[in-house]
User: What shape does this take?
Amino acid sequence: ARPRQVARARRGRARCRASSSASDGASPGDDEVDSAKSSDDPSYSSSSSSSPSSSMDGASLASEFMKIAAERARKEELAMATRWKQGGLRPRVVHENASEFLRRVDLRFPLAVFGTASGAVLVADCTELGGFEYRERATRLLASCPDAHARDWNAAEDRGLGERSLLGLYDGGAVTAVAVDAFEFKSLNDSSSDVTDESSTSMNVVCSGGRDGVLNAWVVPEDADVDDMARRKAPVAGAALRELGAATHPNVVTSIATHPATNAVWTSCLDGVVRKWTLVDGEAPNALRIAREHDVGQPALCVSISDDDGVLYAGLADGAVVAFDVRGDDDDGSAAPLCRFVAHDDSATRSIAACAGGVLTGSSSGVVHAFRWRARRDDDAAAATATAPPVLVSRLIGHRQAVVALCARNAAHVVSGAHDGTVRVWDMPRLARDERGDDGDGAPGDCDDGDGGGGEEEGFGTGGHGDEAGFEPVAERREALYAVTGHTVWLGGVACDDTRILVDGANNVAMMYDFSEDPDGDGDV
Assistant: This one.
């Protein structure tokens, strides 16, 4: 009996051990199974060995890096904004030409386009490189067309009285307007083109207008390289600009504005007509086709397009400004202007810059005016309609001669150039309203005094301040933040973006003023 009891006790203890092992999740061979799975499936090993805490640590580390990068970018942006305010610019030469006087400029970084007194159109690469070759590199061109416009233009004293009085004695040269922008093309029927499929391709298009009345359009070759060793023997030429098309006007082409959204180029002319030219896709080298003509009744001196509003503004010889819908129907050639108003009572509207919420105009007497006005659209596809008359918001006082160039591509500042040989930087007048119809701070009519002076503005709107009809709004008076001197009276063009200013007023040298870095390197803003 006793041996049987001992056997039963042993079997009971064995059953207890088996039950305990099962409840703990272990079974004979589990280690071998785990080992086999980890050797056959690497993901099984990594997933089983990783823990939620390690994943969270990695995500936290990445988040910290993003925060640090964002904070650094914010500080750099604030530092550059301060340099714009205080004139902390760094001058450098972007192109120096041994044989040409540069008379017009435009900028689409890194491309800079120049029009010369002799009729050439030049394209330079503005990218800054260090080293001893920098100055030599500035003499080389990316591309050019040496005979873009006729050279048989008259000297200033030999021109007609109208042209002399409108453009001034210091508006010299065969090229009177240049522009550069990126256009989308599906195909180009040109043997020199590498585009053979139907996919859309972005190309840098250069346009120029001349005293000979010719409008030219070219494409900058994609293989153009300012550092190409084979072209260093002919630094002035660079690659040849590839022709897209040409068109003629009966008088001087005074200004060019590009609008890639509609594949259009707009021109103003001394014959009193503002024209829209369409770049017909696939028709090179005869791609320019007339699409619209607007007779404005006065010599047209300048044009500018607001991409935000879809409106083109043209400045006229009698001081007026006229606005057209750039998205309008080309078949309706007799479409009336959206708006026409007098910008300058006693002088011509010599330059113009469209921006969100309005337009800035430069006069032949040296004053710049800022007007608040927007066209109304029910949606992007709808035609624009006129709204209330424009309101004079600011008078920018400082130039002593004709303001021949205005640029408002920097949302915070306006850059102007004049025949007094100065380039001036101003705070952007507050033109845009919010949905409430005020300036965004709940105080209708309050103007952004900033550091640019002013603050005298009484009110905006057709009825003046408040609801008192007949009360005329008083525009504020602003002075420039600073002036950049050292240019000649032959200054003809100014262009800018958020980081830099390009100007031509040094005869054969094009200067760029860069705000991206501390100019003296001492770390102080």
